[in-house]
Amino acid sequence: MEIVKDNVYSFEQYREVVDKYVQIDAREINFQNRVILRLLDKIFINDQDISIVDVSTQYKNKESKLHTRKFYAWDHTPDLLIVKNWTYKNGDKEEEGYLAIVEIKSPILDPIDKNSIHTNQEIADYRAHCKKVILTDCYEWQFFEEGRLLRTFVLHDKTDWVMKSVKNPDYVAKELGFPTVREGSEEWDDLLTYLKEFV
After folding, report:
1. How many helices (H) and strands (E) does the chain have?
2. CATH number of the domain at 11-198, please?
């Protein structure tokens, strides 16, 4: 008997959890582990050979015969990896199946800024190790491949979430008691599709 795993993560859920940590604790680690890691786990839940791995504490001094960072980092340490057939014991391998490196910023304490020297150095370092790099602060998502910025998704314009009002059909509102207008985000739907395709 096969268990069907749910890969749905709604825009409403995403907004709620991002807003929560913006209000109570805007440190990067919360957005990394409470938002982005969970979102990526949901997206790739049915891909059993793909893992989302937190390597944010794998600093240079953690190098050993058992594990090497040479496949994904040098001077800077990325936050997450999207990896095919992950194993921590990689010291004797010639290559790993790193599909993408994910760098996460706090939308409040360290938002994406194209002029940030530190962020630009991080992205340059990651691009030297992996063809695909994702940069996000939860409000904005940037996708790089082989050094080029391919696509940007803006979910929050620094003042509010980017939403689209959609009118429900009259019979749905009257007969079923649904609101006459619901909010949605085409950008969210496009982001989820693109994340899956990008990797």
Report:
1. 6, 8
2. 3.90.1570
Q: Which tokens go with 61? A: 């001094």
What does each of the 199 residues of the chain score in pLDDT, given as a tens digit?
344 445 568 898 999 999 999 999 999 999 999 999 999 999 998 888 999 999 999 887 778 888 888 888 888 999 999 999 898 888 777 667 889 999 999 999 999 998 899 999 999 999 888 999 999 999 999 999 998 999 999 999 988 898 776 666 666 566 666 665 556 688 999 999 999 999 9
Q: Which pair of structure tokens corresponds to residue 189?
A: 């739907």
| Per-residue three-class SS string for 122-157 | HHHHHHCCCCEEEEECCCEEEEEECCEEEEEEECEC
Token pair, residue 38, equals 């969970």
User: pTM for the complete prediction?
Assistant: 0.86
Backbone φ and ψ of 115, nearest 5°: -95, 5
Name the 3-class secondary structure at 101. Answer: strand
Q: Residue 51's closest CA among 19, 24, 87?
A: 87
